[in-house]
Amino acid sequence: MFLVGSKICNDRGLHPASSLFYTMLFADAIALLLCYHGALVEAVSDFNGLAMGMALGGLLTLTPFFLYGWSTQYIEPTMSSMVSVLEIVSAALVGYFIFSETVSFVRIIGMGLVIASVIFLNIKFHKDYVKKYGEYVPPGYKEDTQPSSSNEPTRYE
Questions:
Q1: Is the pLDDT of residue 155 over 50?
Q2: Long-range contacts (CB closer than 8 Å, 24 or more residues apart) made by 33-36
Q3: Mean pLDDT on 73-99
Q4: In this structure, is the dihedral angle defined by the CA atoms of residues 89, 90, 94 and 95, taken in order, positive or negative?
Q5: Helix/strand/coil for 151
Q6: Predicted pLDDT of residue 126
Q7: Nearest Cα to Cα of residue 13 among 65, 62, 72
Q8: DSSP labels for 127-147?
Q9: Among 41, 62, 70, 72, which residue has the least CB neighbours within 10 Å?
Q10: Exposure pattern of 31-40 as b/e (b: 16+ CB <10 Å)?
Q11: Cα–Cα distance measured from residue 68 to residue 87, given in angstroms and rounded to the nearest whole number
Q12: Residue 87 pLDDT exceeds 90
């Protein structure tokens, strides 16, 4: 839903932070209704808990969602949703390298399958596009309307 909302906001000229604000506002309101309030108060009652919560919330929640919504200005939702699947792999890698979590062989196989599926879908998307339209034109590709002395008819925005 967030991806669709971000695309609609971008198509209407709204900033990606607008959709992010309302998404997080409603998600936080629902989470506050369903959480165990005693544990929440205990976790943020001291400065270290509050600072860790703010850092994790800002760095690991708001930043990826903002970048995800912002990317819908430049890439199609189908491509963005394929790339979002890599979130699972990146979370496992962050857990392994930063938090010293163990990663079993089965999980490594799973991460490889996720990466392989994204590559496979991207290649299939590319081939289907070429089959339908004759050639692949990457997002942001514009034909130059002004004749130029060099034979470079394109520019990227």
A1: no
A2: none
A3: 82
A4: negative
A5: coil
A6: 66
A7: 72
A8: HHHHHHHSS---TTEEE--S-
A9: 41
A10: eeeeeeeeee
A11: 11
A12: no
3-state SS class at 148: coil
In this predicted structure, what is the pLDDT of residue 58? 79
Pick from 144, 150, 72, 85: nearest CA to 118: 85
User: CA 76 to CA 69: how far, in whole Å?
Assistant: 11
How many angstroms separate the CA atoms of 111 and 75, rounded?
24
Distance separating alpha carbons of residues 118 and 111, to the nearest angstrom: 11
If you search the block for the tokens 């970048």, which residue do you land on? 67
pLDDT band for 14, please (50, 70, 90 cuts): confident
Q: What is the DSSP string of 56-120?
A: HHIIIIIHHHHHHHHHTTTS-HHHHHHHHTHHHHHHHHHHHHTT-----HHHHHHHHHHHHHHHH
State yes or no: pLDDT of 33 exceeds 80.
yes
